[in-house]
Amino acid sequence: MQSNKEETVRFKSKHFGGVGALCGALLALVFATQAAAQTNAKCPDDPLPSGYDWTDVKAALENSPFQRGGMIVYHKGEVVYWTGFGWWDGQGCDYFINNHNFNVASLSKTFTAAVAMAVAQDPNVNFSLNDLVKDHITNATSLNASQFDDNGTARLVYDHMTINDLITMMTGHETVSAWPIGLTSCINNPFVSFETCGEDMIAADIAEDDDPNNNSAYVYAPGEAFSYGPMSWQILGLAVANAVNDDFTTILEDYLTGPCNLTDTIVKRPNNEWAAGGFETDLFDGGAFAQALLSGECGNNHTLFNAASLASLNEVTVPLQSGSVPTVSSPIKDLDLDYARGQWVFDQGGSKIYLGVGAWGAVTFYSPDKDWAAYIHLDDHLLTGYIDATDLIIKSGGLADLIDIQANNNP
């Protein structure tokens, strides 16, 4: 597809002839050079570092149930491998950048968690994980007057729900669907504002506490029950926007995509950003984001997370595998995963793999112990990231194990 600049050059060249044609050709060359430079700046170095053997990784991708996709791997802070596979095998960097930018579904939760964590460490913004939701959305208790049982005393949920409860999805919310599947849902709805949708999610139902010793009219207390879905993220997005006093898209650009040079990462819809599922990215932005989650650094030596924030991001906050956490909703009950902040956690037995998972297969995953980060870029609506892509990564002999081998061979 021709850019607007190239279309302008063609118009000038056609209508002015002679010197105009020469000027037009020169302008076209300048614009083309600029476009190539902008695109190629995202492309990994060629050749890539030597000493690695990615034969088994490529075979695992080609033998996976996914018909097409891409993957990129960082080790010790630099790109050491990237590839297309299936129908996208052999496609070049420019082609990936220009043709394979798409919605990454619930990987958006990891992006939003990163934004919230970055805002929380900003000394110029009064915002922390320990804040109450009502500190930033002041009408929260009037929007939802649900109560929980505190040793026989009824307490208002939003007198106690914190930002940390939102980012760990420990809110106990009944799950909701996004628009248009949920015809009356505000999530992703073009006819609802971002602020209204955040308030609608505060007003949304919280599940009844299933403790037989409690009154059936009481709901789960904040921090008591895991509730996967878009509910807490829309509230989190509004709380962040109110704390910074700006719109969510601008905050994303100021705190993440701008300083990290994620030039092809955006969030939709305009004016009602879908914090839990509306992000779009490409293979190389996804890889750079995975590396930023691992190291806390991105862009031109920008510190996305300080040491305390990085440790907080990686803390296992919801030990789902212990069986001690009530679960209202979860897409991956059959996998041995816990939850941190915006990411799932797989314990390999001494080392951990962190995963940001999208429904269509887009997954960031990284190993702090082995200092590698990876991103698999998938958009498959017949399979699922929660099961198929995650299993491809964490199963015995899967991508995580195979990348571990290469990291071990190149200490």
From TrEMBL:
Top-level taxon of origin: Bacteria
Residues covered by the Beta-lactamase-related domain: 71-276
Keyword terms, alphabetized: Signal
SUPFAM superfamilies, A to Z: beta-lactamase/transpeptidase-like (SSF56601)
Residue ranges of coiled coil: none
Signal sequence interval, chain numbering: 1-37
Pfam family, one: Beta-lactamase
Record protein name field: Beta-lactamase-related domain-containing protein
Source organism of the structure: Hyphococcus luteus
Lineage: Bacteria, Pseudomonadati, Pseudomonadota, Alphaproteobacteria, Parvularculales
